[in-house]
Amino acid sequence: MTSRAVRLTIGAVVVVAGLLLIGGVAWASQAGDGPEQPIAFMHTVHAEQNDIDCVFCHRTVETGAEASVPAVEQCMFCHNVINDENPKVTDPFYRAEIAKLEAYAENNEPIDWVRVHVMPDHVRFVHAAHIKAGFECATCHGDVGSMERVKQVRSLNMGDCVACHRENDAPTDCTICHR
Amino acid sequence: MRRRDVLKLAGTSGLGLGAGVAFAGCGTPDREFHIQSPVEIPEDMVTGVDTWYASICQDSGDGCGIIVRVKSGRARKIEGNPDYPLNRGKSSARAQAALQTLYNPDRIPNPMVPRGHRGSGRYRFRRWADVLPDFQEKLTAAADGSIVMITEPVNGHLAMVLERFTQSVGARWLTFEPLEQAAVRQASAKVFGTTRVPQFDIANTSYVLSIGGNFLEGGDAPVHYGQAYGHFRQGEGRSRGNFVHFDTHLTMTAANADEWHPVNPGTEGILALSIAHAALEGGAVPAALRPLANAEGTLAAYAAEQAAGVTGVPAEIIQRVGHEFAAAQTAVAMGGGSAAGHSNGLFNMSAIFALNLLKDNVGRTGGALLNAPSPLPDIPAESPVTSFQEWQEFLGEIESGQGPEVLLIHGANPVFGLPGVLNAENLLGDIPYVVSFSNVLDETTALADLILPDHHYLESWGTSIPPVGAEYATLGIQQPVIRPYHQEFDGEAGTRAFADVLLALADSIGGPLAEALPWETMRDAIRASVDELQARGDGSVISEDPESFWLTVLQRGGWWGPAEEATTAAPDLSGLPGPDAVFSSDSQEYPYHLVVTPSVLLGDGSGSLAATPWLQSTSDPMTTGVWTTWVALNPHMMADLGIQENDIVRVTSVAGSILGPAYPYPGIGEGLVSVPLGQGHRELGRYAQDRGDNALGMLAPVVQEQTGALAWSATRVRVSATGRRTRLPRIEGITAPVQMPDQQTFQITDES
Q1: Is residue B375 part of a domain?
Q2: I want to staple B308 with a disulfide (CB 3.0 to 4.6 A). Which of A17, B160, B242, B315 is the partner?
Q3: Strand order in B65-71's β-sheet?
Q4: Quick check: A128 contacting B, CB < 8 Å?
């Protein structure tokens, strides 16, 4: 084996090992829970146990490109009553988290949530079009009602988008998403 | 203050310096991955909707009008501004790639000082509040005349601010243009009476004669000329124009011409006068050309038969082109490129431009249109340019111990762009206090004692006066389209606009400086000018209300109005250098001419464009090469030298050498070596660093006597194989050609 071939082989082994490592880390980050949030908001409590419709909070999902996260004011519609002194809230963990929300409201401070689903800048995804076509939120986002911390369940990469577009006879022109 | 900000600050204070902020400064800032719950329900706001903001592109060199798509606070796409007179909706790859200079991971996010000695390559971040007082003290303590400001050539409000700032603090202002165009500007002054090269109205002309003028890929305004060229060829209501191009090698513009004829380097002026002689049928020249003529008033010395031997262009072609030029209903003669970079560049360019006088086309449709002056008298349309000779003198002063005490640098990279033999790196490094305002770590910024990073142009205010444009007096406005990516938190870190730093400094120093620069920010200065435009009551925006005038001007990307007639001096072609070019060395030891070609994508490489992967990976239009430097050689010459494709060759001049893979290029003569510029950075971040080689560094310091400019086409070289091989990354030749069914195939043959 020439020295060039040896170098290439070593290089290839290092690259493959690196890819495995990166792949492993990426997979690990998808497994388990999603990122920690400033308030431990639970979709399990809201979407599953109390059966609140997704659109109640994510107001623009049927009309706009983005689903939008609710304003603090909107959270307080209910949490004015379901506050940290409400006797029905017995769990001290929930009391503490609700108190955090109340603090944001009192201080007129917006909440910076950590994004779970991030699309690259060159992609234009329009929620409204997909909802109007009859898709459930869960098709892409999974069963968030069962997630204590929301995580990404689909790769949502180009292959994923194109495959779904093909299955559903949706257009696959480049400019549908990249424009 | 938010929790993260506290952490960042904790990181900057005390012994923990650097680590916290360094980490925050790497890669994408945290907040880019945040989604915010507003406090109140925004009833009328639909998130996720695109907003387009108009601004000006400052990366592409010509100041195109752009519109930028912004969604969720991020700039996502750049297009040409359809309203803007210069480019009318078109844009360039460089303008499109500005997103990658904006979101470049190697941008400098905070003020920095070197750790240890200067040039150590290691830095620590600082707060603005900690570095500015010291900077101000150094500036005020410096003796009169011992401050030097170096910038790129600028116009508009920044030029005005810099002019006033440098005058008030008693500083010298040097501008740096690597491939100096002094010969073009001064030839324009001689022929057209103005240093602003006219707008050649190719859209409405019937014949374009270009000698070295690569207007489609370089020059003043490639996007403007690209669009005009489209009209020239296929415009409605007109017949297809004819385009003849002469140049030393086949460039992109040459490839678009009906005819391309190679011309020997340095003989472009002789060729132009020979064409003039043919156009005049050997008769007497008009009065304006008299200084170039003989005692009888003819150009007999340049008769086609004689000129053919010197220029390498066959006599019958000179004759035919001369007759065609004379017979054309309207015609323009354009020039530039390497013709302007010879020691006789002024002669070449004057002779080429003088062809327009034969057609008497100045100020006429389809001719050379004089550019509209700046709409505001105190806002300069042109930048002062420091000649190479002045640069040599400046560096000489430093060498003899009479250099400045303080050096301020913005946007220019002389360490990369000046010929290596000038030793600029060591000499600028001898200046006691160097401050750079660059937001990328380039070769010159690496010498700095203090780096005060500028905002990107998509984050800051500015103006631009288009390089060409006869129809309208235009003031293009560059407005911030997003909040600064490296945002300040409580004024402690982040980037700040260069002009705003100067204005704040003026306010803080007070006295005549503050009087000269009375505005708090650049926005205020621009607003004051826009109010002046509103008072005119004409142009693209008219409104009684200053506020709605301002907002509409911003919305449209600027203001343009009827141009006052440009007044220029009469042609004066006296005192030109002789027609013969001088080269750096003898033809025995260095047998070949070096043709340095600015990359269509990366320019001359002195800016930050090489730091963008999009431009790096876009194919060169002629060779399809990407990501590196190559050496284009004639295949016959390669065979004679025993050089194979992809052999790494060394190109050596008296002043240095470069390495690059040999690329067989039939579109170049046997005595020439063409090397693209743009690469060869030691700094400039991960995408630019250590790729290819920089041919600017090996240029011999031959000076054009009349202009004092560097004769950057005057370097002779030799070529030798190194015995090593590599593979030039390119698209051409990696897949076999496919014959498309029912498609006609064109074959290009060598007639000789």
Answers
A1: no
A2: B315
A3: B51-56, B65-71, B74-80
A4: no
Note whether residue B269 is domain-resident. yes
Condensed to tens digits (0 to 9), the pLDDT of residues B107-158 reads 999 999 999 888 888 999 999 999 999 999 999 999 888 999 999 999 999 9
| Domain range annotation of chain A | 1-31, 42-69+118-179, 70-112
**Total domains, chain B:** 2
Partner-chain contact B47 A66, CB within 8 Å:
yes
B132 domain-assigned: no
CATH number of B678's domain: 2.40.40.20
Name every residue in B having a CB less than 8 A away from some CB of A. Answer: 2, 31, 33-42, 46-49, 71-72, 74, 76-77, 99
CB B171 within 8 A of CB B147: yes
What is the rounded CA–CA span in Å between residue B452 and residue B443? 15
User: Is residue B433 situated within a structural domain?
Assistant: no
Cβ neighbours around A150 below 10 Å, total: 20
CA A108 to chain B, closest CA, distance in angstroms equals: 6
User: Which has the closest alpha carbon to B154: B498, B385, B499, B409?
Assistant: B385
Among B347, B369, B391, residue at a domain's last position: B369
Mutate to test the interface with A, among B28, B30, B35, B78 (most CBs of A within 10 A): B35
Measured between CB atoms, which of A64, A109, A126 is closest to B47? A64
Measured in degrees and rounded to the nearest 5, phi and psi for residue B740 equal: -80, 135
* Amino acid at position A110, single letter: P
Instruction: Indicate which CATH number applies to the domain containing B215.
Output: 3.40.228.10
Is A69–B2 a contact, with Cβ atoms under 8 angstroms apart? Answer: no
Q: Where is B318: in which H helix or E strand?
A: helix B315-327
pLDDT tens digits, B689-740: 999 999 999 999 999 999 999 999 999 999 999 999 999 998 887 777 777 7
Decide if B39 and A109 are in contact by the 8 Å CB cutoff: yes
| Domain end (from B352, B369, B386) | B369
Q: Is A66 exposed, middle or buried (0-12, 13-18, 19+ CB in 10 A)?
A: buried
